[in-house]
Design brief:
The chain is of the alpha/beta class. The protein has helices at about 15-30, 45-55, 70-75, 115-120, 140-155, and strands at about 5-10, 35, 60-65, 80-85, 90, 100-105, 125.
């Protein structure tokens, strides 16, 4: 089965190499582009990235941007195609407006997006539900995979 739908996964300032590697592996599985926005908390050459991505990492369709403003300026995405995932999102991830060529954007593992990005894109933010007061966040690679498959479900 070939994935003819197009959407992208974007990681804003990722910090944990294993998460990036695992998300890259999901991108290969779904034939998606992975966009990374600097700064990173690691080098893409680190073994941890390759270990998590296994021998699939070489097949990742990867693009990099130097900053959020560099991404917005060069990519010039329609605002309606930006879907940011953050604990502060007012709506749930399955309510997001998944469309062809949308961008699923995930913030840093430890602190999410900058306050400026959160303020400017609050209307584009969605979250995964968490029902226990004992947890602050979910693993980024698990969230990215969950949201990617939800997007795929909406587009097929």
């Amino acid at each position: 089965m070939e994935n003819k739908t197009r959407f992208k996964i974007v990681l804003f300032a990722p910090e944990i190499p294993g998460n990036t590697g695992s998300i890259g592996r999901t991108c290969v599985a779904l034939n998606l582009e992975l966009i990374l926005i600097k700064p990173y908390g690691f080098s893409l050459d680190e073994k941890a990235v390759r270990r998590a991505g296994l021998d699939y990492w070489k097949h990742v369709k990867l693009r990099e941007f130097d900053s959020w403003s560099d991404f917005i300026q060069k990519e010039n995405p329609d605002r309606c195609k930006l879907i940011l995932l953050e604990n502060t999102g007012k709506e749930l991830y399955y309510q997001a407006p998944y469309v062809e060529d949308c961008y699923l954007i995930f913030g840093r593992e430890t602190c999410g997006f900058t306050p400026e990005i959160e303020a400017e894109y609050q209307d584009c933010m969605y979250q995964l539900p968490m029902f226990s007061e004992h947890i602050r966040s979910l693993n980024l690679s698990n969230v990215a995979t969950t949201v990617a498959y939800e997007c795929l479900r909406h587009l097929l």
